[in-house]
Amino acid sequence: MKRKIEGIGWVSACALFCAGAVFLIGCDAGGSTGQTAAPEMPEHDTAAQPELSENMEKQTAVADVDSAPDSGQDGKTDVEEHAGSESKDAVTSERAQAQIRHYYGGVLSQITGVRKLPDGDLDTSFLDDGSGQMRDNRFAVADIDGDGREELIVSYSTACMESMFERIYDYDPVSEELKVQFTAFPALTYYDNGFIKAEWSHNQGGGELWPFTLYRYDAENDSYVEAGTVDTWDKAISETWYEELMDGAKEIVVPYQPIGYESFQDFTPVYLKMLAEEAGKERTDTEADLGLLILEEDRFLDAAQKLLSEKYGVTMEQPDPNFEEWTVGLRDGKELFAFEALNAGHISYMGEKFKDVTIFGIYPGISVDSAWEKLKAYGFYASPYGEVENCLITGEGFGNISICFSAEDHVVTEITVGPYCAFAG
């Protein structure tokens, strides 16, 4: 799956109101870059946006992110086929929604784990000097533009004024692309008619009205375009314009949450369990699947050892008294399983197939092609970080799973599986 982050599309033509009160920026649809410059900020301007921490729903300038580093969540899983259509209307199923949230969980994992966005770096100076914590910032997952698909809103304020932002990301599970729909200063109000009111970070005019720019959602280009800018307010001219433009629109209450793992910890498990239920419909041997225990049990190593010892008579031993985290499972003197309680824990299954024991449907002795086919049904895809050929993951964020196996003559000989996150320390 290719991974791409697109910037904001072209801006449609706008009107110009004179009389010194309202200024609606004219935009050239043919020649616009899709980027609106932020108002210049005087070096010692004291009229800065007040009390950001109490109202973080605001922004100022659109950032156009054209090329992104090949990092971050890479949701390379099969999506239900939607014949001949890549529109958003085709991906409104429950599974597609879960897959989108799973992807956003990867983006949030990257932010919390390594303090990076999928399309650039974060200003972490306030975090590094102890002036703030990551959870002081906020995110929301909601269909903010009303197109039937949820977007990810990231509101970042623990930075110097010019580095603060609120950004709307949109992930399309059909095209497998992440797009930046909108970026501005985090002083935004969202409306149910697709408009965003973006207050400026500074009030250069010094008047009673705080300057703002209005943006509207352009469904054809799946982005926000500028509708007008107000830096002073003449009621005789501008109130009618504003009321007609908003047409009774209501403010959206955005479901913001702190940027912390506890806020998005369910995104990945919900998706992986959904895939497991679908894959399990074709199976009759799931009761002894050690991989599924990772999805179902907090202490999956203990659960796996208990299952093997009580149901199959596998003997558990710790061969090295100085390494209590390592346990092996033996049957008739053969070492068939190994359990390592480090780095979130791993299970190894080796040598030959034992009874009906599997790991996500695969076992020693299965062909490599069959192993890949079965693993794909559970959401696995080739890991971009794998040091060996047959290394797969379900995603890059917290709560995912990795599985690697060795093979001889195109037959699997040993399997290792465990929790995974590309951004974990």
- Rg estimate, integer Å: 26 Å
Give the low-confidence spans: 6-47, 50-73, 77-85
The largest pleated sheet is described as: 8 strands, antiparallel
Shape: elongated
Helix/strand class = alpha+beta
Strand order within the widest beta sheet? 13-14-15-16-20-19-18-17
- The secondary-structure element order is EHEEHEEEEEEEEHEHHHHEEEEHEEEE
Mean pLDDT: 81
How many strands? 20
Q: Total helix count?
A: 8
Total domain units: 2
Identify the quaternary structure here.
single chain
Which bin fits the share of residues in helices?
10-25%
Q: First CA to last CA: what distance?
A: 26 Å
Proportion in β-strands: 15-25%
List keywords for this structure.
2 domains, alpha+beta, six-stranded mixed sheet, Aspartate Aminotransferase, domain 1, 20% helix, eight-stranded antiparallel sheet, 425 residues
Brief summary:
This protein has helices spanning about 95-115, 125-130, 235-245, 260-265, 265-280, 290-295, 300-310, 370-375; strands at about 5, 115, 120, 140, 150-155, 165-170, 175-185, 190, 195-200, 210-220, 225-230, 255-260, 315, 325-330, 335-340, 345-350, 380, 390-395, 400-410, 410-420. The protein has about 425 residues and is α+β, with helices and mostly antiparallel strands.
Structure description:
This protein is of the alpha+beta class. It folds into two domains: 5-262, no CATH class; 282-420, Aspartate Aminotransferase, domain 1, CATH 3.90.1150. The chain is 20% helix and 24% strand. It has eight helices and 20 strands. The protein has an eight-stranded antiparallel beta sheet with strand order 13-14-15-16-20-19-18-17, with helices on one face. A six-stranded mixed beta sheet has the order 1-7-6-5-4-12. Helix 1 packs across helix 5 (267-280). The longest helix has 21 residues, at 94-114. Residues 6-47, 50-73 and 77-85 have low confidence and may be disordered.
